[in-house]
Amino acid sequence: MEQRYATSPEHIPGMDTDELRSRYLVQGLFVRGEVNVTYTHHDRVVLGGAAPGDEPLPLPTYPEIRSEYFLEHREIGIVNVGAPATVTTDGEVHEMPTGACLYVGRGVRDVVFANAGDGQAELYLFSAPAHTAYPTVLTLPGQGTVRELGDQLTSNRRSLNQYIHENGVKSCQIVMGVTQLHPGSMWNTMPAHTHDRRMEAYLYFDVPQDARVIHILGRPDETRHLVVADREAIISPSWSVHSGVGTAAYSFVWAMAGENQSFDDMDGFPVTEMR
């Protein structure tokens, strides 16, 4: 388990590219036969990737979280961004096609990942502390709350699928979903915004091999950027904007944890006021 300690807006002006990447960019999530996780002290979120190989792959217990098993005091949201998979929770098998989302509540002892066919599953994990238990719920692609946002004229036409949220699958802290940009659109979440009540993490995927996403972070008047490749994740502190533009259309898993679960609780900043 890699540790990433919390940062404040005052740190941003003194960071060079290497430090920005080491603080906020998470790479190498999907390694065949491994579960790789990063613990960020921003709202004590754990994000990671599970890439099962020929054998089933259990979710480990890490000494850093001081628990008997991973979900003893936590909950987790799982989105499959690879080939079809199964996730078994305390003996119950959940079939997860590409794009499915599984919420697993506090108290589930055993979580095991496996491929469901000849393809290679890649399961993105986002976990937050939980004070009570909610039922495990599988949501298939298209079964969430779909919101159509943006406009082709501003290159940000996108379909946002909310899975875990206050009016959908119940959780203690996690809000989670998937956004797909329409062909010809490259921008996500512009005008940019912050929400001091919760942190957010992005996993960019469906990024063509020869394409990149330019992710904007920092305070609106002190922005920086990261160049992000396919299946790389961004840790976005509550004080930071989070927006991006790609050299081609792409998708991303967004997930939040913190003070509240209201998706629309955000503080927007006109692009004309950003620096």
Automatic annotation (TrEMBL):
Gene this protein is translated from: kduI
General function of this protein: Catalyzes the isomerization of 5-dehydro-4-deoxy-D-glucuronate to 3-deoxy-D-glycero-2,5-hexodiulosonate.
Protein's recorded name: 4-deoxy-L-threo-5-hexosulose-uronate ketol-isomerase
Keyword Lyase: no
Binding site for Zn(2+): H193, H195, E200, H242
Family classification: Belongs to the KduI family.
Cofactor note text: Binds 1 zinc ion per subunit.
Pathway: Glycan metabolism; pectin degradation; 2-dehydro-3-deoxy-D-gluconate from pectin: step 4/5
Annotated EC: 5.3.1.17
Swiss-Prot/TrEMBL cofactor(s): Zn(2+)
Stored Gene3D superfamilies: Jelly Rolls (2.60.120.10), pectin degrading enzyme 5-keto 4- deoxyuronate isomerase, domain 1 (2.60.120.520)
CDD domains (UniProt xref): cupin_KduI_C (cd20491), cupin_KduI_N (cd20294)
Major enzyme class: isomerase
A Pfam family the protein falls into: KduI
GO MF term (any one): 4-deoxy-L-threo-5-hexosulose-uronate ketol-isomerase activity
Catalytic activity: 5-dehydro-4-deoxy-D-glucuronate = 3-deoxy-D-glycero-2,5-hexodiulosonate
Keywords: Isomerase, Metal-binding, Zinc
Keyword Zinc included in the entry's annotation: yes
